[in-house]
Specification:
By secondary structure, the chain is mainly alpha-helical. It has a domain of about 35 residues. It contains 2 helices and no strands. The radius of gyration is 24 Å and the shape is rod-shaped.
Length: about 60
């Protein structure tokens, strides 16, 4: 690929990518939040199970 082709490819990619710029940002935010979301769910589940076990052993 020569220099001219590369330039055309890059600009073509840039213009093609502009309308899609909003969507990858949303996906990137979800991807960034997902591990924290899973960790939060696991923490809640663990706390719930521990509380359930404590109540079970008390009665």
């Amino acid at each position: 690929m020569d220099e001219n082709q590369k330039k055309t490819f890059v600009t073509g990619f840039a213009t093609y990518d502009l309308p899609l710029l909003t969507r990858p940002t949303i996906y990137r935010t979800i991807g960034w939040m997902f591990p924290y979301f899973v960790a939060g769910l696991l923490a809640l589940l663990t706390i719930f199970m521990i509380r359930k076990n404590i109540h079970g052993s008390l009665s």
